[in-house]
Amino acid sequence: KDGEYDAMMARFKIDQLHALNERNIQSIETQMSIDVELVSVESNLTVQRIEDETRMETEKIREQSIADGEVDIAKTKAEIDVLLAEGELDVAKNIAKGEKA
Question: What pLDDT, on the 0 to 100 scale, is given for residue 101?
Answer without folding.
Answer: 65
